[in-house]
Task: structure prediction
Amino acid sequence: MSKMGRMLGLKPFGNIIAMKPKQEPHNTRSLLWQMEAYWRALPRSGPVPRRSDVDPRGVESLLRNAIILERVAPGVARFRIAGQHLTDLTGMEVRGMPLTALFSAASRAPLGAALSEMFDRPAILHAHLTGAPHRGGEAISGQMMLLPLCLENGEVSRAMGAIVTNAQAETNPCQLHSAAFDLRPLPTEHAEPGQYPMADSHSTDAHNTAFAEEAAPLRGQPPKLRIVHSND
Result:
């Protein structure tokens, strides 16, 4: 079974074939637009949709780049689900790690501040990403988008989104950097994905000092990913 099939908790049975993610290489704008469009189409009774309504079948073509985060403290959100692209980028299984661990020291404090505001407002977080060339290859570039989700009690403590870069499997490990983390207001009913007003955007200064978060080294076989249900 493929790694993505294991991520979804799928098991082979008879002639049933597990879903295999599709990807348009380097089509960053299209991938982020699709993710936002799916998020906007989710049912909701408040400002953001519920985590329990997220179905991986709705973002099948995005699974390689998809992530789901859990807020564990102000400014700290850890990976609950992460696609294969994050493994390619870092050279390890990132599930359970804080998002900030993927970023350079100069980017961690601004990212932490942006995460706090994303969950508190709530808002949509977007960032352009860069990374140093690896072994003489091309410099890393890409984008990240995070979209807030709530639990059944209305608490906004989850986020879905995507990290898309030009990194290949042989690139790892790589630390990401962003000069600014932009917070955008939640879209109005008639706004198209990616086209709602930017006047309320908020950028953070990437030159602030960071708080360090050490990632434990991967030991043994990487854990199998699974979909976390409504009680996550």
